[in-house]
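My current task is to audit a protein record that another person submitted. Please read both lines and tell me whether the tokens look consistent with the sequence. Do not assume that whoever made the record got everything right. I have pasted the whole thing underneath without changing anything:

===
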Amino acid sequence: MGLSEDPDLQPVLFGLFLNMYLVTVLGNLLIILIIIFDSHLHTPMYFFLSNLSLADVCFISTTVPRLIVDIKTQSRVISYEGCLTQMSLFIISGCFDDMLLAVMAYDRFVAICHPLQYHVIMNPHLCACLVLVSFLFSLFYSQLHNFIALHFVYFKNVEIANFFCEPSQIINLVCSDTITKNIVMYFFGSISAFFPLLGIFFSYYKIISSTLSISSSGGKYKAFSTCGSHLSVVCLFYGTAIGVYLHSALSHSPRNSAVASVLYTVVTPMLNPFIYSLRNRDIKSALWRLQSRIL
């Protein structure tokens, strides 16, 4: 299913999604390059941010290029193997995003609550291990979805109520029984969202408790300002994802659900570079240094 069957809207949708995709990819790649080439940003926080930007590029690349091709060719058909591949890559990149946001919250917790031990605790070996474990967990989570989906051996001429092979839509096809479907959905939701969110909430509970004990208002502002960008991205990512989930549960219009899915699959990865570049003093300084080198 596409976003619209109106032929007059197809050129508009093509240009819109192409531009959004280019902005997302170029913005996130710019952040990655700045972090790589600017020695001032060779810290754990920006190491995790570079991986988050890479995850965002992969996340949007699993859906939008295919959507752009479908709009251009006026085709809505995807093969069984292509659907499973798209779903797997979407889950890996999306879950990796979730895990990295939790890891970044832990990084801010160590930086604010244990500043003197920060570089000892967040050493390069631990940072690399955290990213590797996040990726392996995402891979394992994707394989769980595939294990369930492969029980539905083959499907043909089946309409998926979205513009991509969304995991929840595949589960709807696999699980005909409502109770079984809800159990599977809640199980996967608790793994991919609940546990990372629990880690984020715990980290920020400790951060707030530690910050409130600081006597000076300047110290409190400095502590909270280091978390502003990350907290904005967390609210944007989980806020849109939860909003889409609630909209899908309450709305009986598949096309409206597909439009709502654009928020967290396209808009969120596109806005992340702007959030980190506009709200982060180090990134803005690095951009000015890069600009001065080029000019």
In short: The first helix runs from residue 10 to 37. The radius of gyration is 21 Å. The chain has a mean pLDDT of 81. The CA atoms of residues 40 and 286 lie 8 Å apart.
